[in-house]
Design brief:
By secondary structure, the chain is an alpha/beta fold. Helix content is 25%, strand content 25%. β9, α6 and β10 form a beta-alpha-beta unit. α4 packs across α5 and α4 crosses α10.
């Protein structure tokens, strides 16, 4: 089979190689990968910033394809089943978090492309407990980005304190944000999209936003307060400085909900937070069942990722386009 791998921790690049097709071990299945989304978190493998990755390593945790081999002890799945795998790529089942049924916070969480080779390949071996069923209405290419970008935004919003009719702002219209705007609008929230530049206004409204705020030309906090104050601001951006003005736009009991990872510290004015009973919370992805819920909701409401595809042999080009910010909005490797 072909695989796009990071050959070493020092390489910081992808290389197309030929490998033997792997065989499933007990409790795992082999997926014939048809599509794999490229996520910014894949940089953790490419740049060797996640400890413990065994190189050479194939990244990729937005996997969609079909089961073509079953390991010993696997039940409930059959050859030909259409399945996806996301950030939740397996759990230990015995730690305190797993014993509470909170598998996404497993102390030994397995992430495809980090704990084992991911979907930048024609085949992948995945624990059966991590599989999500893909509905017939979604192609593999449409399903792949929902395994991470989709479930992250959908799951965060549905577990937030916002109720239908509440003002919810989506900070950033990118790989995560363009899905967040769609989900927020379909969930019945008064949706505000926030991004840089007036050129994104038309897109924001097409995605379902009732209001668009250009952060370059308006005071985001003041504008949100004028609209009544946000119950939730879902931050999909990676710059902490971009989150700070949105904090000023929270209503009473408002919440900044962070799904975009930033290495920068976030400065907050605790006086304002206390006065408004504000909070800051982060949310990480979801389990395979959450991915199934995400796909079902997407089918029901017509939510889809905006996707650019490239073949597996152009994995480096696709990765570079994602990292540059030029992708509109999710890059997907088509391997079928």
């Amino acid at each position: 089979m072909r695989a796009a791998v990071v050959p070493s921790a020092q390489a910081h690049r992808l290389e197309l190689v030929s490998r033997d097709i792997p065989q499933p071990t007990p409790g795992t299945v082999r997926i014939r990968v048809e599509a794999c989304g490229i996520c910014h978190s894949d940089a953790l493998v490419v740049n060797a910033t996640w400890p413990g990755v065994a190189y050479p390593s194939a990244p990729g945790h937005e996997i969609a394809g079909t089961i073509d081999a079953l390991g010993d002890g696997v039940s409930g799945w059959k050859l030909g089943d259409r399945v996806g795998v996301g950030w939740h790529g397996g759990h230990c089942g015995v730690c305190d978090r797993c014993r509470r049924g909170d598998f996404i916070t497993c102390r030994c969480l397995q992430v495809p492309g980090i704990a084992y080779d991911g979907g930048y390949a024609e085949y992948a071996i995945v624990p059966a407990v991590a599989l999500a069923r893909i509905p017939d209405e979604l192609s593999a290419i449409d399903a792949a980005p929902l395994m991470c970008a989709g479930v992250t935004t959908f799951n965060a919003l549905r577990h937030s304190r916002a109720k239908a009719g509440d003002l919810v702002a989506i900070l950033g219209i990118g790989g995560l944000g363009h899905l967040g705007v769609q989900y927020a609008a379909k969930m019945g929230f008064r949706t505000v999209a926030i991004a840089r530049g007036d050129d994104k206004a038309e897109l924001a409204h097409r995605l379902g936003a009732a209001h668009y705020l250009d952060s370059r030309s308006v005071d985001v906090g003041a504008e949100l307060r004028e609209l009544g104050g946000a119950t939730v601001v879902l931050s999909t951006v990676m710059a902490a400085a971009a989150m700070e003005p949105a904090l000023e736009g929270l209503g009473v009991d408002g919440q900044l909900l962070v799904v975009g990872a930033s290495a920068e510290p976030l400065a907050v004015r605790t006086t304002a937070m206390i006065g408004g009973r504000h909070s800051i919370k982060a949310w990480a992805s979801g389990t395979c069942f959450d991915s199934e819920d995400t796909m079902a909701f997407s089918v029901l409401t017509g939510v889809r990722a905006h996707i650019e595809t490239m073949p597996l042999e152009r994995a480096q080009d696709a990765y570079d386009r994602m990292m540059s910010g030029a992708a509109r909005f999710r890059m997907v490797l088509a391997t079928a």
